[in-house]
Amino acid sequence: MKKGGSNRKIFLFILEIVVLLAFFAQPAFAKAISSAELIEKCHFYDGKEVEFQGEVIGDVMRRGEYAWININDDSYSSKNVENGSKLKGYNTGQSVWCWANQVGFIKYKGDYKNSGDIIWVKGIFNRACPEHGGDMDIHAHQIRLVKQGQPISHPFKKERAAVALFLGVISAGLFLINKFLTQKRQQKREQPL
Amino acid sequence: MLVRPRLNDFKLIGLYVGKVLIGVGLLMLIPLLVALIFQEWNAAVDFLIGIFSCFIFGLIMHISCQTEGDLSWLHGMFIASFSWLIAMVLGAIPHFLSGHFGMYIDACFDLMSGYTTTGLYLLQDLDHISNAVNMWRHLLTYAGGQGIIVIALTFMIKGTAGAVKMYVGEGKEEKLMPNVIQTARAIWLVSLSYLAVGSIALWITGIFLGMPVVRSLLHGIWVFMGAWSTGGFAPQSYNIGYYHSLVYEIITVIIFIIGSFNFALHWAVWTGNRREIYRNIEVVSFFITLMVTFSLATVGLMKLGVYPDAMAIFRKGFYIVASGHTTTGFATIYSREFVKQWGSLAMLGVTIAMAIGASACSTGGGFKGLRMGIIFKAFIQEIKKLISPEASVIVQKIHHIKDVVLEESHVRSALLIVLSYVCIYLLGTVIGTYYGYSVVEALFDSVSAGSNTGLSCGVTSPAMPVLMKVVYIFQMWAGRLEFMSIFAFVGFIIAAIRGR
């Protein structure tokens, strides 16, 4: 009886995890297309509805009722260099045109001091958008927050500061020697022959 | 007979290279200040290390190389070319310490790209870089555009007869004022005045585009520096495509076209000679070749139906061609779009525009409009000679600040430099093709590096072979200094080894 109850608990626990995973890992994310693929196969995806996911970078640029956001889906979107990620090439991403009220929830925009919010976007991909002077963009009709960003902590590098201090002392010493020698040369020049 | 340089020759070179290094260290005080303002403490420490390293090397050279001799042309040329290499190695310290470069050579690549106003970069995760490093990147292009020797002449070297030899060695020949140091200061006066006006224009535009005030100001200053110096660095990985704004694009086009003009032309207009704008051979040459290359790109874009309407073709096509022709390298499209959308014909149009490049004695690179004008006029002169009676004398004139009778020496000199550019363009293309890139792609990025443009179709990347990085660094360096200093550099080294 006791053993059977324990099995049931384990079963219920696994079931709970499966349900939670199914809830949070929205199936749409699995279909998200990478920016690299969108660029490489731009003719194929042109005018089609696509799903895209990545880190909001820089600014949310509001233009009246609308807004532009730039979203990076590179490997740095999960962990950037300032957070200790290994170097994995250039940033890559896509620009998204959306309603301004769709992006009101965005709190963190990726930069030196912040990891940006990770968002999921569903919209129409334009290889050369007729509305935006030929820009490659996604006109979003659905946007969701996947993971909120956070400030990046930059622990002070004390060893490096010590090196800087050491070099500073040497520089100061050389500066004084140079000044002394310059004065001496000047005095020598000014001495009557 | 080759004469081996004496100890005094090395001392002279060391003394002036030391001064240039101290100048580079002083320049780093600006990003240090930015780091302190924005509380980027680690970046501040990185810049302190960079500053003190420059000071130590500069002061050691200054102390140990004291001499009274005057500079010869060879000294001046060698100092100019050697200073750029040493300034690259030491200037790369804060870049490398930022942690955004895989190898030190990558940081050196970005430094040379900045100094030479090229705009190609190997920095990784640009979108998470500190304000201080971003300021350093853009300051490099701004200072490099005027010339690091010009900086030294302006602030650190007082009236020596040899100053002009270093100035010429840096690829500038125009003398706006009777004295070369006054000329250097005049170049700075023009550049700083435009910096104030251009940055404010971009700042206000940025605010209207939805950017916060402080970020918009920083972006305004940086984008101005990138545009004016025809450098092409931008603070975000999307380059100018980040802003999605026609107004921003128009302002940057105006800035980089003005920035690509000869400083002598700027000075002529500055001092009231406005007619020079449409009489100058470089301006005429620039607009003709711009229209020709833009037409070529337009035909290519229309043939493939890349853009939906004429406005989009003009907005994208003209921006990229003008950016390439002025050797700026700003882009409103992704690098791979050149290959995936634009196609070979449009890419060829941009490649030719980059190869021709901007004006002599400007911040730009490439063959230069003046040389294109001279070669074209010489071509016309030859045709006139063929169809005229044998006894007739055909005189051809060019107008550059004043009317100049075209002489054979002008044509020979122009052709020699153009040929040298063709050689470095080919060098990069051959190396790129060897490593498996298509000829069109290898040619595109090679010309971009050699002409100090900065547009890329995807060949330039941190993953490319080290040899290609080294070749591109050489192309940027040689292209910016216009070869004479490089020949002097090589000649000096050969003389030091084999001379008697």
Q: How does the SSE layout of this entry go?
A:
The complex is a heterodimer of chains A (193) and B (500).
Chain A: H1 2-24, H2 27-30, H3 35-40, H4 42-45, E1 49-63, E2 66-72, E3 93-99, E4 114-115, E5 118-126, E6 137-147, E7 150-151, H5 158-190
Parallel strand pairs in A: 3-6
Antiparallel strand pairs in A: 1-2, 1-5, 2-3, 4-7, 5-6
Chain B: H1 7-27, H2 29-37, H3 41-64, H4 73-97, H5 104-115, H6 131-146, H7 148-155, H8 163-169, H9 180-208, H10 213-228, H11 246-259, H12 263-270, H13 276-279, H14 281-304, H15 310-325, H16 335-356, H17 369-387, E1 397-400, E2 402-405, H18 408-434, H19 439-450, H20 466-481, H21 484-498
Antiparallel strand pairs in B: 1-2
Helix pairs in contact in B: 1-3, 1-4, 1-7, 2-3, 2-6, 3-4, 4-5, 4-8, 4-21, 5-6, 5-20, 6-7, 6-10, 7-9, 9-10, 9-11, 10-11, 11-15, 14-15, 14-16, 14-17, 15-16, 16-19, 17-18, 18-19, 18-20
Can you describe this structure in just a few lines?
The complex is a heterodimer of chains A (193) and B (500). Chain A has 193 residues and is α+β, with helices and mostly antiparallel strands.
Query: Taking all residues together, what is the mean pLDDT of chain B?
Result: 91
Task: Give the overall shape of chain B.
Answer: globular
Give me the strand/helix succession of chain B.
HHHHHHHHHHHHHHHHHEEHHHH
Q: What is the radius of gyration of chain B?
A: 22 Å
Low-confidence stretches of chain B: none
Please report which band the strand proportion of chain B falls in: under 5%, 5-15%, 15-25%, 25-35%, 35-45% or over 45%.
under 5%
Instruction: Tell me the count of domains of chain A.
Output: 3
The percent range for strand residues of chain A is 25-35%
Number of helices of chain B: 21
* Termini gap of chain B: 8 Å
Mind summarizing the main beta sheet of chain B?
2 strands, antiparallel
Number of strands of chain A: 7
Individual helix count of chain A: 5
Structural class of chain A: alpha+beta
Determine the CATH topology of the largest domain in chain A. Answer: OB fold (Dihydrolipoamide Acetyltransferase, E2P)
Characterize the main sheet of chain A.
5 strands, mixed, barrel
Largest interface: A-B, 60 and 61 residues
What's the order of the H and E elements of chain A?
A: HHHHEEEEEEEH
